[in-house]
Predict the structure.
Amino acid sequence: MDIELLTEAYTVMKKIRRFEETLAVLYTENLIRGSMHLCIGQEAVAAGVGLAMEAQDKMTTTYRGHGHVIARKTPIKYLMAEMLGRETGINKGRGGSMHFTDVSRGVLGANAIVAAGLPHAVGAAYSAKYLKEKFVTVTIFGDGSTNQGAFHEALNLAAVYKLPVLFVCENNLYSEMTPIEEIVPVEHMAERAEAYKIPSYIVDAYNVEEVYEVTKRVIEEIRAGKGPAFIEMKTYRLAGHMVGDAEIYRSKEEVAEWAQRDPVKIVAERLAKKGINVNAIDNLIEKEIEEAVDFARESPWPDPSQLFEGIYYGE
Ligand SMILES: Cc1ncc(C[n+]2csc(CCOP(=O)(O)OP(=O)(O)O)c2C)c(N)n1
Ligand SMILES: [Mg+2]
């Protein structure tokens, strides 16, 4: 990454960090309802993958997907309004934290159901192949998702049909509150892709440059027609699984050790050493967040008469 791109990666990571730290505060004020899963600590995946994708590419993500959507450049004021359940939200306040969807920017949907985004991505990739379009679909999911049937069905179909889809596994060492090593028989989730003859890569995802470089190369290969690929991002969430998580399943020392490698902090220091005015970037982000909060707070609630708008059913 040249310095310009690294600065961009930092800006994305920091925006995600501050967006979510702000959510945590708003949550305590009862302005956000329901469960909320933060990606604090995992921002380098969002930033690196987001920068490696092209405008026409598509994505599916999970309930831990705020960062992925921010990296796709959805203006945060619409995401903030969505968090607060307002009509001006990206999904008119109907989706909330776990369902950010922005089709205009290729975000086909976040999903509360573990591994549900993988088959959706495979469907999108099938359409690209069928219609001879050049977009690549990226699906991001957690380590725990690799135990779901939908994961295996999606990988199998993608491999057999040679579909232009990139599987990105965020291995943050835990499936909810369970250490992943207790519930899978493999050391690396990438081994599971090998079983389907899908080329797989393991990345230190606390290094945003490595995330970007590997993802960029792999997406180019997929776009050139090589079929699906799988990247395991070794990462760690510094926040709890969800708001209110007592975190009794891991030690404070373990969290502190990962926090020392916090990519947001480390990249900021590197940029500052190279003469980049990091404070100026941070101030702009603060301003954008403040404006987003004001926009969301001042936005109207959805009209109850439109409760069923956008809901479809079959006869
Ligand atoms: C099909 C299904 N089963 C169970 C759950 C409850 N659940 C929510 S998050 C989660 C853990 C998923 O872990 P992982 O895929 O590693 O993602 P992470 O939360 O670590 O990002 C579970 C079991 C769910 N949402 N969907
Ligand atoms: Mg996990």
